[in-house]
Amino acid sequence: MLRASVDWGRCRSCEPCDARLACKRRAVVKADPDEPAWVAHDRCSGCGDCLAACSHAAIDRLTSSGKPFLQVQNAQ
């Protein structure tokens, strides 16, 4: 199953966070406005709505093994 994951190196801690606003399951979380977002994996369905919403491309989808989805897909 795919899950979203925030790359904190690319996250710019936007306020408001467009990825958080786009997530229908409220899986993208920000505890503090000045901190990067993170994904609550127990809520994430892997739909990808947050990926399209993040203007800094700071969100990736990971496979259940923790590898980036595109990396696995391109290897096949």
Give a written overview of the molecule.
There is one protein chain. With 76 residues, the protein is of the alpha+beta class. The chain has one domain: Alpha-Beta Plaits (2-Layer Sandwich), CATH 3.30.70. The chain is 22% helix and 16% strand. The chain contains three helices and four strands, in the order E-H-E-E-H-E-H. It has helices at 18-22, 49-53, 69-75, and strands at residues 3-6, 28-29, 38-39, 59-62. Strand 2 (28-29) and strand 3 (38-39) form a beta hairpin. Residues 71-76 have low confidence and may be disordered.
Helix content: 10-25%
- Top CATH class: Alpha Beta
What is the CA–CA distance across the termini?
17 Å
Number of helices: 3
Helix/strand order: EHEEHEH
Q: Number of domains in the coordinates?
A: 1
Low-pLDDT stretches are 71-76
Q: Going across the major beta sheet, what is the strand order?
A: 1-4
CATH topology: Alpha-Beta Plaits
Quick one: overall form?
A: globular
Q: How much of the polypeptide forms β-strand, as a percent range?
A: 15-25%
Structural class: alpha+beta
Number of strands: 4
Average pLDDT works out at 86
Mind summarizing the main beta sheet? 2 strands, antiparallel
The rounded Rg comes to: 12 Å
Q: What is the CATH architecture descriptor? A: 2-Layer Sandwich
